[in-house]
Fold:
Amino acid sequence: MNVNKIYTPNQILISSIFFGPFVSAYCLDKNFKALNKVNKSVSIALYLLGLLITITLYFVPSGKFFIYLAYSLIAHYVADRKQISQKEMKKSDDYRAHSIFNLLTVSILALVTFLAVVFVTVFSMTIIESFLS
Structure:
């Protein structure tokens, strides 16, 4: 029997609050693929929305927590209503939740990747700025 691993709505909520919109976009995308409900436009939209929210958070001086909370609650709603709820998953023999270790690994890797991109961007902008002055 083939058991599909998916992220639960609560896992998506927690990872989104603590690790940002890219992690929840990744988890939602993986769930759509496991449930065979995926198309490329949905995947692209999820990641673009994560990028847009991340950029927006950079420019918003205050109230960042509310943006994270709103995005996280929307991600939880999508996972619970448009994918599979935890109750349905418990009743089903076809789906099991990913382990917390898997979720933490994905979340930490996404965070490290994001920080590396920010570091490279800031570092390269500093070098370019020093050449221009």
Remarks:
- The chain is about 80% helix and 5% strand.
- The chain has a mean pLDDT of 84.
